[in-house]
Write a structure and sequence with these properties.
mainly beta, 6% helix
Length: 281
């Protein structure tokens, strides 16, 4: 049956025969209601139940470190702090993800006693970093990165602020030169070998081979012309191309707007030239 003990002064329970408790006090009951302004436990407090609920408004803990997942003997147990967001409907959790070996901040997560299932990562704000190994903020990165733009093959643009260093390392027979404000020149000081195709990626764009100074473009092997479906348009530059052989007997044609008013001409073969010379006497 229920029993009430009321006193007009302080009430102390001591376990042991000395002036202070030196034994263990076991409280085994469905409910023990301690109704007082202050309840003090002058020794260690051990709770062996499955749940501890604290309904206070302010919780103050003197310990410098708080241990979670005590007596953990598993190899994949997540642990952290959960925040009940009330009517918002999706709680927030900051925890250690054992499987990913990293800290995570998440919302809308579901969890069991050993695992957290992520559904949405949460934002984390931090102060402006003062050292290289501090967490960087978006504003810090935006301030430090800007000015020089480097674009990769995937069209991703990386900005590098003036005053910072963009190191593009060269190598054997490869030189790099940087100039303000945003120019990087890569020089190949060697012959290119093992190349089977050079293609311009510009739509209908030209592919230019340009020698240095008074140098020439020299072809030390066979130069092959693919057959053209039609004559190209005439411009002030001479265009040489291949199609079905005509009266010249070569199939190698040229066109220039300044020659014969842009009419198509065919180079004459040696045999055709000899025949014409004989025919013309």
């Amino acid at each position: 049956m229920a029993k009430n003990i009321r006193t007009s002064g302080n009430y102390s329970i001591r376990a042991g025969t000395g002036s202070t408790g030196d034994k263990t006090l076991n409280l085994a009951a469905q409910l023990i209601d301690l109704d007082s302004v202050t309840v003090k436990v002058r020794g260690n407090l051990q709770v062996d139940g499955t749940q501890t609920v604290v309904d206070s408004q302010t919780l103050e803990i003197e310990d410098a470190l708080i241990e979670l997942a005590r007596n953990n003997s598993g190899t994949d147990i997540d642990a952290g702090i959960k925040i009940d967001r009330g009517g918002q409907g999706n709680d927030a959790i900051f925890y250690w993800n054992e499987g990913d070996d990293t800290f995570k901040a998440v919302t809308s997560a579901s969890q069991t006693s050993t695992a957290v299932t992520d559904t949405a990562l949460a934002n984390i704000m931090a102060a402006t970093p003062t050292a290289d190994d501090h967490v960087a903020t978006k504003g810090y990165v935006a301030t430090q990165v800007g000015g020089i733009k480097v674009t990769g093959d995937d069209s991703t643009v990386v900005n590098v602020a003036s005053g910072n260093v963009l190191d593009i390392a060269g190598g054997s027979n490869i030189g790099t030169t940087a100039a303000e404000p945003d120019t990087v020149t890569v020089s190949l000081n060697n012959d290119l070998t093992g190349i089977t195709s050079i293609t311009s990626d510009a739509s209908n764009g030209n592919l230019e081979l340009k020698a240095n100074g008074t140098g020439h473009i020299v072809i030390n092997d066979i130069l092959t012309f693919s057959a053209m479906a039609s004559d190209p348009s005439a411009t002030a530059q001479t265009k040489i191309y291949n199609k079905t052989a005509g009266g010249g007997g070569t199939g190698l044609y040229f066109i220039n707007s300044n020659i014969s008013s842009g009419a198509v001409g065919e180079l004459i073969s040696k045999s055709k030239a000899t025949a014409l010379a004989i025919a013309l006497g």
